[in-house]
UniProtKB/TrEMBL annotation:
InterPro entries: DUF5723
Pfam family, one: DUF5723
Signal peptide region: 1-18
Protein name: DUF5723 domain-containing protein
Key words of the record: Signal
Domain of life: Bacteria
Domain DUF5723 per the UniProt entry, residue ranges: 220-358
Length: 415
């Protein structure tokens, strides 16, 4: 985890002198509960990347130090930028699902609590080179560390959902959520170039960046937010249906955070740094007061931030040719996280027993270029239902391939 946070130090150093979605797999596979209220719990955990394997992700997250061979191996696996997302969440709730009875629809409702942590980034390859080797190897050249973002979210939520009928026919499930923010950091570099004089006589920088930084510490209530969500399923002809949903669309208000918007150029005289983490020390004797007054923030202000919402759309077609293949589907989703690309999905549900089924999904986009998701859900007795899912299982089965892996475990108990 420390190397994820080391990215924070990278940006802080730079700013000092400038100063199923991947997580909706369980929604695709868990068997719906009709008519009866139930309790539920869900755990999600994992890390995904466009370039790093599960082993490299583990090293990048857990190790304090990477030797030169590990650095070279990591950089060779990255095309133009490194994108990754680390997600950890737990939720529990009570639900009374809506259902049709004698031609009328009984509206459902539910309440849920959850704890969520996101760590996401898109880091340019030049930025990683600068992080690993400093600026000496780039004397006489200009490197571009722009188009980079890093963001962490840590918050707890209470969700209340209820059904509303559209045109007296189609149930629309609305969700209203209240959030307590524990920690948040955002560093966005739209454009940043660094030129180092061949003799180290000066360092030219041209920066356009933003920061939204709480303080790096975890608080019971460092911020407060609200969001809304909606989900609906619309029938299409006899065997098809369209599912649309949006969740966590709202804002979070963070109290007394560091806020900076900068678009500036600057020249530092006689600056070489062998390690980017030594940059502040290098600059201390080089116009320290001047660069601090030009770039560095020392005040504390409150700020708003759009929450990491999710939008999904899917089309499902029920089949009757094969009993073991009840339906197939295609879909797309998007998460408002750094480095996340829109994801396309297509798959099928396969019955493996009277109360169990397997879901297989091929994906393109998200944090990985392409992958395979597998889910298995089953029922034990009358009351217990379970769902297990792994996104990008190919990254887990063959851990040296890129992508990482993300898992979900969910359980429902009928009351």
């Amino acid at each position: 985890m420390k190397h994820f946070y080391s990215c924070l130090f990278i940006f802080n150093a730079l700013f000092a002198f400038g100063q199923s979605s991947d997580t909706n797999m369980v929604d695709d596979v868990i068997l719906p509960v009709k008519q009866y209220p139930y309790l539920s719990a869900k755990v999600q955990y994992g890390a995904l990347s466009n370039s790093l394997s599960a082993i490299e992700l583990l090293n990048f997250v857990s190790q304090d130090f990477l030797d030169n061979d590990e650095k070279e191996e990591l950089l060779e696996s990255i095309p133009s930028s490194l994108r990754f997302g680390y997600i950890r969440s737990f939720s529990a709730g009570y639900q009374e699902p809506g259902y049709d009875i004698f031609g009328a629809y009984k509206k459902g409702w539910g309440i849920n609590v959850r704890n969520t942590y996101y760590n996401s980034a898109k880091l340019s390859k030049d930025l990683l080179n600068l992080m690993f080797y400093g600026n000496k190897p780039y004397a006489g050249t200009t490197i571009n560390i722009g188009d980079s973002k890093f963001e962490t979210w840590y918050f707890s939520s209470i969700d209340y959902n209820f059904d509303v009928l559209l045109d007296s026919i189609y149930p629309l499930q609305l969700t209203v959520s209240l959030h307590s923010g524990h920690d948040h950091n955002y560093y966005g570099v739209k454009m940043a170039s660094i030129y180092t004089d061949p003799q180290g006589a000066y360092l030219d920088m041209d920066l356009d960046y933003k920061t939204r930084d709480k303080d790096g510490d975890v608080h019971p209530m460092a911020g407060i937010g609200a969001s809304v969500g909606a989900a609906i399923e619309l029938p299409i002809k006899e065997k098809g249906s369209l599912q649309l949903s949006v969740s966590d669309f709202g804002v979070m208000y963070w109290d007394k955070g560091n806020v900076l918007n900068a678009d500036s150029t600057f020249r530092f005289e006689g600056v070489y740094f062998s390690d980017i983490f030594d940059l502040n020390d290098s600059l201390r004797d080089h116009a320290s007061d001047e660069y601090k007054s030009a770039f560095y923030y020392s005040d504390s202000r409150s700020y708003y931030r759009l929450m990491p919402f999710k939008v999904s759309a899917a089309y499902t077609h029920k089949t009757d040719k094969y009993k073991w293949l009840p339906e197939v589907f295609i879909g797309a989703n998007y998460r408002y996280l750094a480095g996340y690309y829109p994801q396309l999905r297509g798959g099928a549900r396969i019955k493996t027993g009277r109360k169990q089924q397997l879901t297989a999904i091929a994906t393109v986009g998200g944090y990985t270029w392409a992958g395979v998701d597998l889910g298995y859900d089953f029922q034990i007795g009358r009351d217990w239902k379970f769902a297990l899912a792994i996104h990008n299982i190919n990254g887990l089965v063959i851990p040296v391939t890129s992508g990482g892996a993300f898992g979900t475990i969910a359980v429902q108990y009928r009351l």
